[in-house]
Write a structure and sequence with these properties.
The protein has a six-stranded mixed sheet with strand order 6-7-8-3-9-10, with helices on both faces. It has two domains: 2-228, 3-Layer(aba) Sandwich (Rossmann fold), CATH 3.40.50; 236-339, Nucleic acid-binding proteins (OB fold (Dihydrolipoamide Acetyltransferase, E2P)), CATH 2.40.50. 25% of the residues lie in helices and 34% in strands. The chain is of the alpha+beta class. The radius of gyration is 24 Å and the shape is elongated. The protein is built from eight helices and 20 strands. The structure holds adenosine-5'-triphosphate. Adenosine-5'-triphosphate is lined by residues 13, 18, 36, 38-44, 192.
Length: 340
């Protein structure tokens, strides 16, 4: 049985549905990341699960039990918000101890748990440190330890690393994943950062205007975005209208080979940048290399074709053209996705 189930949950603000008949299951020990643009309903989803927001229709179930009459503090869910809201007047240990104190855990046991949790989040011995003396990343860890302290059956994170700089975020996300795996925590996290979601999640849920646009493992969503919205949200810009049939897509960029078994008919296709190959072929698409940006292990090349939108190619360093050069492009079917 799923630990968390949303069954047709709708939340309206005036005429607008912030959540529109959302169905979602989160399994025991699974980490699910909800991803989507601003205003797509991510925070509302967390709030309705926590009991901070009333659902206009549908049900929220935890371990199969309808939560509609269960108040926030009895749901057994932990929440950690973006601005982590530590109590500034308490030291790090006092912050972590808060939930334990509320639950009447005795002092000795409390001190032991606080030390253990601070150790777990990589801040051993930091119990006496004033909140103001901690860096952003350290505060984030204290907030995490505080959320974990009451051993919630479901931990919910809202933009957990939102305010930290990129390097720190990338490090912490790996630590979090490792930590959740070790503890067997069930996690529902919300982020607008796809890199963070893909690094943290067993499964990602992409939201659009209160609905789930796609759900799948990070690899599934990355390899096969369900539609143009998801593809563009993931940062793929090589999307054009197409008519697909007989193993090719007819597009403004010419005929593009598609993988076997692709859906036929009118729609659109995505060509992932590594599938835009710069090579001399007689029937290739002639383009001008407008910009070339060095990206470490490859070069991102923006190409202007004779018609249609710009094309982005990802080419090995040795194949990078000169800016302004005329090149010929061929498409690799394995990097083409026919979108729904
Ligand atoms: N209390 C509220 N009153 C009225 N409208 C609200 C309220 N809370 C959220 N909304 C609206 O519901 C929609 C979804 O908001 P929500 O905060 O869930 O989006 P989000 O995906 O978390 O966005 P962000 O990434 O910007 O935090 C938005 O259109 C928002 O304006």
């Amino acid at each position: 049985m799923a630990l968390l189930s949303l069954d047709g949950v709708t939340v309206r603000f005036g005429a607008r549905a912030a959540l529109d008949a959302v169905d979602l299951d989160v399994a025991e020990q699974e980490t699910v990341c909800v991803l989507g643009p601003s205003g797509s309903g991510k925070s509302t989803l967390l709030r309705v699960v926590a009991g901070l927001q009333h659902a206009d229709s549908g049900r929220v179930l935890l371990s199969g039990r309808d939560q509609s009459d269960v108040p926030v503090h009895r749901r057994g869910v932990g929440l950690m918000f973006q601005d982590h809201q530590l109590f500034p007047q308490r030291d790090a240990g006092g912050n972590v101890a808060f939930g334990l104190r509320m639950r009447g855990v005795g002092r000795v046991e409390r001190d032991r748990r606080v030390a253990e949790l601070l150790e777990l989040v990589g801040l051993p011995g930091a119990g006496r440190r004033a909140v103001a003396s901690l860096s952003g990343g350290e505060q984030q860890r204290v907030a995490l330890a505080r959320a974990l302290a009451p051993e919630p059956r479901l931990l919910m994170l809202d933009e957990p690393l939102g305010q930290l700089d990129r390097g720190l975020r990338e490090r912490l996300v790996v630590e979090l994943r490792e930590l959740f795996g070790r503890l067997g925590t069930t996690v529902l996290a919300v982020t607008h950062d796809q890199g963070e979601a893909f690094a943290l999640a067993d499964r990602v849920v992409v939201m659009r205007e209160g609905r789930i646009a796609q759900t799948g493992t990070p690899l599934e969503v990355w390899q096969r975005p369900a539609d143009e919205f998801v593809a563009r949200f993931l940062g793929f810009d090589n999307v054009v209208p197409a008519t697909v049939g007989g193993g090719v897509a007819d597009t403004v960029w010419g005929r593009i080979p598609v993988p076997d078994g692709s859906r036929e008919g009118k729609g659109s296709v995505l060509v992932r940048p590594p599938g835009v190959r710069i090579r001399e072929t007689p029937d290739g698409l002639r383009c001008v290399a407008e910009t070339c940006v060095f990206r470490g292990d490859h070069v991102a090349v923006r190409l202007r074709p004779p018609r249609g939108p710009l094309l982005e190619a990802e080419v090995p360093l040795r194949d990078a053209p000169e800016t302004g050069a005329e090149v010929t492009v061929a498409f690799a079917a394995e990097e083409v996705v026919v979108l729904g």
